[in-house]
Amino acid sequence: MPFHNGWLPREGFKADTALRIIQKTALNPGVLLPLLLLTRFTKQGQDWAVLHPLAHSRLRKLLVFGVARWVSNYLSRRVLNNWVSDTYDWSREIVLITGGAGGIGGEMVKLFAEKGIKVVVLDIQPLSYPAGPNVHYFKCDITSPKTLAQVAREIRLAVGEPTVLINNAGVVVGRSVLDLSERDVRFTFDVNTLAHYWTVKEFLPAMVEANHGMVVTVASVAAWVTVPNMVDYAASKAAAHAFHEGLAAELKTRYGAPKVRTVLVNQGYTTTPLFEGYHNDSPFLMPALHPETVAEAVVRQVLRGESAHLVLPAMGNTMSWLSGMPHWYQSRLRSKNVTIMERFRGRKVVKDVDRFYEEKEKAEQAAEAAAAAAGVGASTVLVEK
Predict the structure, then answer these.
(1) What is the spatial distance between Cα 362 and Cα 199, in angstroms, rounded to a whole number?
(2) Strands (E), 176-307
(3) How far apart are CA 189 and CA 195, in angstroms?
(4) Regarding beta strands 118-123 and 213-218, do their DSSP bridges make them parallel or antiparallel, or are they unpaired?
(5) Distance between CA atoms of 73 and 178, rounded to whole angstroms?
(6) DSSP 152-163
(7) Could you tell me if 371 and 381 are in contact, meaning their C-beta atoms sit under 8 angstroms apart?
(8) Are strands 135-139 and 118-123 parallel, antiparallel or unpaired?
(9) Closest CA to 174 of 294, 348, 356
(10) Is the C-alpha dihedral spanning 266, 248, 148, 132 positive or negative?
(11) Does the keyword Transmembrane helix apply (predicted)?
(12) What is the pLDDT of residue 304?
């Protein structure tokens, strides 16, 4: 599956395309500066500036704005990477992706694998696509730190120490607050938020020691705007967003690992089975994204070996402004989006959440009992694969 390099994205002509055209023309110093130089050093350009003073003034203002934007982007890029560079040898790196059995994660796996990069997939579901020899699948419940620790040991023995961790796994229930059961809420946070802590605690220490590696946090634009029937999902994604920001700060200030990169992804509605029935009421400004579009953006960034904040589509950046808007606007927007989840029927990663937790609790109790009988410490409990 090669990268999409067409002039138009898979989603067609949308607001992002218009914005990209403006950025490459009206806000591009590389285009504006030569034009202004012509108005200063050529006779025809000078005549044009005299005949059209307002247009000439606007051209200069656009150049100033374009240069300021370029400088701001440069500073942001350097600051996010702690002003240090690093080199990635993709013949030796190992990429671990949670929730890589299908959807966005599955598309990432395919792209990395096609480039000959070793990929480890952690998922409780089987792979939904044929995998090559450099894709290593491990069935794993990432909500269980003990199970994850056991599987991590197997990964190190069979494949090696992961150097790129992509926390991609996610679930959505799609019910109102009063209709959510306790276990519904726990499951949403266990997968969408808490699993990030468990995977990082397992794989980050080696990255810190080597001062090399990357952690990718797949959040959502829902981290910025909460709508009816998505309260638990939005809250879990907002927590994942905060997790990324705090982790990036700790890598620099607590762990002395400025070369360990962090990437945050805030993507909009994506047409995966997980969100089947989701109603998109802004198809031009916030179009439904193809899973391949999101996967390609993440993979491209990982291959650059740099920290970044990816917002897809780019118009999703306006969602981050919501908390600064007047409350009359915020409240209206949230209420207006009541129709988004009315016909939601997305795929359930776990069909029976109650049974999932009951079996999980029984397995943990049996493992603890077996460990106690064998005289093994609680910290070294062996969990059935």
Answers:
(1) 23
(2) 213-218, 260-267
(3) 8
(4) unpaired
(5) 43
(6) HHHHHHHT---S
(7) yes
(8) parallel
(9) 348
(10) positive
(11) no
(12) 97
Cα 268–Cα 96–Cα 118 angle in degrees, nearest 5: 120
Catalytic residues: 233
101 in the Ramachandran plot: left (φ > 0), alpha (ψ -120 to 50) or beta? alpha
Domain boundaries, the chain: 15-80, 94-339
* Residue-wise DSSP of 288-356: PBPHHHHHHHHHHHHHHT--EEEEESGGGGGGGGGGGS-HHHHHHHHHHGGGTTTT--PPPSSS-HHHH
Domain boundaries 94-339, corresponding CATH code = 3.40.50.720
Strands 164-167 and 135-139, by their bridges, are unpaired
CA 106/CA 100 separation, integer angstroms: 5
CB atoms within 10 A of CB 213: 26
The percentage of the chain sitting over the pLDDT mark of 90, rounded to a whole number, equals: 80
The continuous run of DSSP H or E covering 202 comes out as helix 195-210
Q: Residue 120 corresponds to which amino acid?
A: V
pTM of the model: 0.92
Tokens 């802004």, located at residue: 282
Tell me: pLDDT of 131 over 60.
yes
Amino acid at 366: A
Spatial neighbors of 170 by CB under 8 A, at least 6 apart, are 99, 191, 192, 218, 220, 274
Tell me which amino acid residue 65 is: F
pLDDT in tens, 72-84: 999 999 999 999 9
